[in-house]
Amino acid sequence: MAVREITTYVAAPPRSRSITPVVLSIVKHVALLTVGLTFLLPFWWMVATSLKPNQAMFSIPPLLVPMQDPALWNELVWNNYPRSFTFTRPPFTVFTTGRER
């Protein structure tokens, strides 16, 4: 008679995830969010400035959101956009010719 070998397989205990990859992932995500917000800030500044009334454009400290200072910025000025297309003087003429009209 042949002797059979009985092999038993024991499941390896589950490996616990090391803390180092988790911390590294969190640091990477925070860095990416910081860089992303840094790149988006100029675009927000451009849109916010285009919607400000004239007296709020040069206020110190700068106003970044509407209604931050209701005395200066109490409404969104949407008419700045159509007004920019009806400007009669070509852009940069003051800088290229050195004189105003």
Plain-language structure description:
The chain is mainly α. It contains 4 helices and no strands. It has helices spanning 19-50, 54-57, 80-85, 93-97. The protein starts with 18 loop residues before the first helix and ends with a helix.
Which helices and strands occur, and which strands form pairs?
Layout: H1 19-50, H2 54-57, H3 80-85, H4 93-97
- Helix content percent band: 40-55%
Work out the count of structural domains.
1
Mean pLDDT equals: 79
Structural class: mainly alpha
Summed up, the helix count is: 4
Determine Rg (CA atoms, Å).
31 Å
Quote the distance from N terminus to C terminus: 113 Å
Give the low-pLDDT segments. none
Q: Quick summary of this structure?
A:
The protein is an all-alpha fold and 101 residues long.
Characteristics of this structure?
101 residues, mainly alpha
